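Hi there, hope your week has been kind to you so far. Thanks so much in advance, here it is.
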Amino acid sequence: MTRTVAIIAAIVLGIGGWATYALAATSAAPSDLYGCVDGSSRVLEHVYTIESNYLNFLAANGGNCPNGFRITVKNGAVLPSPSSSPSPSPSPSPTVTSTTVPQCELTSLDRSECGPYSDQNVRGGSNDGGATVRQEVWNLQPALQKQDLRVWGPGNWNVTVRAAAGNTEVNSYPDVSDTVTRSDGTPNPVSSYSSLVSTYSENMHTTAATDAEAAYDIWLNNYSKELMIWVDNHGQRPAGNDTGQNITVAGNTYRIWDTSGHDTVSLVLDHNAQSGTTDILGIIQALTARGFYSAPGLSQVDFGFETPSTGGVDETFEVTGYTLRYS
């Protein structure tokens, strides 16, 4: 059941988030509040003090607030009303977020996924059905003991991994994935693009025991060719051999690693970068000019983490921003 709460003042929607909050509660003991904001009137509704009841309410409504957005006020702290006199010992400002409760959570060690998400900032082709965020446990081994995925959207998700110390074998690739084939399922010719650029922001919270990397995984020619672009590497070695060649595209320099038949080509950025811009089209064109590909076609573009070892302890890998835009 919802708790009766007196609400004073307005919630103003600002660029990129909530700009102003002013709440006044009853004299009951402070507690966390969970509820919804009406998308039109900006009025709080369906307010709960028990998170499990709130989650049950959301589940009964397809996982979302019926008329607007989720909101959580943590610790029961209350902002003073604008009309009230300054208090000599004001309460701390509440932690307010519309993303406290993930839209999707996956804990099973399998190849399940969340989405698709209709995010116009993550689109790689005209036939794009929306990006998904995937568990993608494709090589389950005893070394992988835990992988808990929490998703708010294709540019806002994290995964907590526990993988045995000393392991070097890749077990999984939690990632944001976008299929970019044509309507008949065939690869989208790279020649049909004038631009394909991605931005990313991530944090692996690495320790001395971390063996992992953040990387794009791009599939070409009906998934017969794999192009990896490593942007943040801690202890991992790409497949194949170091060719001794470098390429520079859009100001970024990469070392080229290659396997037989160019089945897997890996580009390793010459410095670790937790955020950046990647010119995917420019990279494919540069590799084509060097003979690695011939008339390549795009099938899928992914970005995520390979996490062979966390030293046997929990480690959270997070994506805080991601875009994929084409023309």
Q: What stands out?
A: The chain has two domains: 12-97, 104-326. The longest strand covers residues 297-309.
